[in-house]
Amino acid sequence: MKRGCLTCIGVFAAGCLIFAGIIQLIPYGRNHTNPPVVSEPVWNNTTTKALAQRACFDCHSNLTVWRWYSNIAPFSWLIQRDVDQGRRVMNFSDWQNVSNRRIDRLSEVISRGSMPPLQYLVIHWNAILTSSEKQELISGLQDSLANLE
Predict the structure, then answer these.
(1) Least C-beta-crowded within 10 Å: which of 68, 86, 97, 138?
(2) Are the C-beta atoms of 70 and 76 separated by less than 8 Å?
(3) What is the domain count for the chain?
């Protein structure tokens, strides 16, 4: 490799490191609070609760586990956005405000495989559900909603 190419690579690497350092100063994505649990589902069984905890709770509850990488931008930005949006759409820690429409929609996205999302599954392999686990979770969530009404 020519000396000029090595210099360019070095300058590029230094620029990337400086950029990575600067973006750490942006405060968004560091609000790692878990509000109190307002109400939980009356779980139809422990399996449904365990499946929901495994595949859904990090984004769809007030019991988010904030792992070390959730403090590093730009990952912190993406994680914060996903948790904020997930809690807004459906929150297992505020079950009294979940409607039948939400459960129907949830059943659809679980069946289709778009929940949990791929970017979550890449890092959280334990959240990957088999077809039978998906069906069990869907059925259990529908039963759990029925227990609330």
Answers:
(1) 68
(2) yes
(3) 1
Tell me how far the alpha carbon of residue 25 is from its chain's centroid.
23
C-alpha to C-alpha distance for 137 and 44, rounded to whole angstroms: 10
Give Cα separations from 13 to 2, 9, 17, 26 (angstroms).
17, 6, 6, 21
Q: Which domain holds residue 40?
A: 3-148
* Other CB atoms within 10 Å distance of the CB of residue 78: 13
pLDDT band at residue 110 using 50, 70 and 90 as cut-offs:
very high
Q: What are the pLDDT digits (tens) for 34-65?
A: 999 999 888 999 999 999 999 999 999 999 99
Q: Judge contact between 35 and 62, C-beta under 8 A.
A: yes
What does the radius of gyration of the chain's CA atoms come to, in whole angstroms? 20
- Phi, psi angle pair for 94, to nearest 5°: -140, 50
